């Protein structure tokens, strides 16, 4: 039976990561296993930046936004000699296994560490919901609530002034945040990587809404899709449609805040599940949510899974949000 495990957060932070850390620490304690937090992701492994923590620490961070143990990106971790330093540091401290909370990139590091003798289990922590092997990721629900609240507020003022708004939403190549937000707010137009509209198509759709005398228009766009800014898109929509149009880039407000109930529960349950794998001697695994049930799969198999086809869902939401 293992005696000491480590936990780290890597890549972009997400609300609910602390809940996952908390689940790890408390479930380890159930088994009499000590937990060490590793500060700033893989950087802390290489720099020997570990600290033993207690279940009391676990409870104190559970409801907090961000990650209490820091996160960082360390591209050099792809090099074997850098990972070797990390493995030596873990051996010196007697840490035999690791929970890695992050995205796809972080799991590649976890897989490589497992191959070097440190059993690792990866947990899905990102607001983007872009991890194919999990229906939902820790942080998505909280970010979605933030996005929805922001859209509602912008809708209020657009409606008062008979205007249009462009709202730019994060997702790192995945349209789940704007797509779900469109369902929850009735946003009139949306353009996401899975179904990208040209500037001309967006302008034409908004113009039609103006012709139909719609009082306000909300256009959701995913970040990093166009070679022009959302500000510029708003100007072009204004010129084409007749609506005074404003742009809002929601930005990092989407990454912060206290985790929602769903993210806390998913985070804690994932942390508990990961510890169960490690104490049974398993590693090289990724924990994902499938049909509301946690499952553990080989990291390698999850990295190659094809993206889900969202065509029907996108068409359904476009039809639903059409203005008559
Ligand atoms: P995310 O985990 O959110 O996808 P990144 O892709 O930035 O974020 O990856 C986070 C970290 O994981 C990187 O900074 C690096 O330390 C580590 N990593 C990514 N890819 C690899 C790889 N192929 N081998 C080893 N470590 C990796
Ligand atoms: O992966 C989370 C995320 O917030 C993405 O949605 C976004 O593209 C990226 O991270 C932003 O990264 P940074 O905080 O480094 O600007």
What can you see in these coordinates?
The longest helix has 22 residues. The mean pLDDT is 97. Helix 1 runs parallel beside helix 10. Helix 8 links the parallel strand 7 and strand 8. The relative contact order is 0.17. The chain is of the alpha/beta class. 44% of the residues lie in helices and 18% in strands. The site of 6-O-phosphono-beta-D-fructofuranose has 9 residues, from loops. The site of adenosine-5'-diphosphate (ADP) has 18 residues, from helix 5.
Throw out a few tags for this protein:
elongated, 324 residues, single chain, 12 helices, Rossmann fold, binds adenosine-5'-diphosphate, binds 6-O-phosphono-beta-D-fructofuranose, 2 domains
Could you give a short description of this structure?
This protein is 44% helix and 18% strand. The chain has 324 residues and is α/β, with parallel strands linked by helices.
SSE layout:
Elements: E1 4-9, H1 17-30, E2 34-38, H2 42-46, E3 50-53, H3 55-61, H4 80-93, E4 97-102, H5 104-115, E5 119-124, H6 140-161, E6 164-169, H7 176-185, E7 189-191, H8 199-211, E8 217-222, H9 230-241, E9 245-249, H10 261-279, E10 285-290, E11 293-298, H11 299-303, H12 311-320
Parallel strand pairs: 1-2, 1-4, 4-5, 5-10, 6-8, 6-9, 7-8
Antiparallel strand pairs: 2-3, 10-11
Helix pairs in contact: 1-3, 1-10, 6-7, 8-9
This protein binds adenosine-5'-diphosphate and 6-O-phosphono-beta-D-fructofuranose.
Adenosine-5'-diphosphate (ADP) is lined by residues 10-12, 42, 73-75, 77-78, 102-106, 108-109, 112, 126.
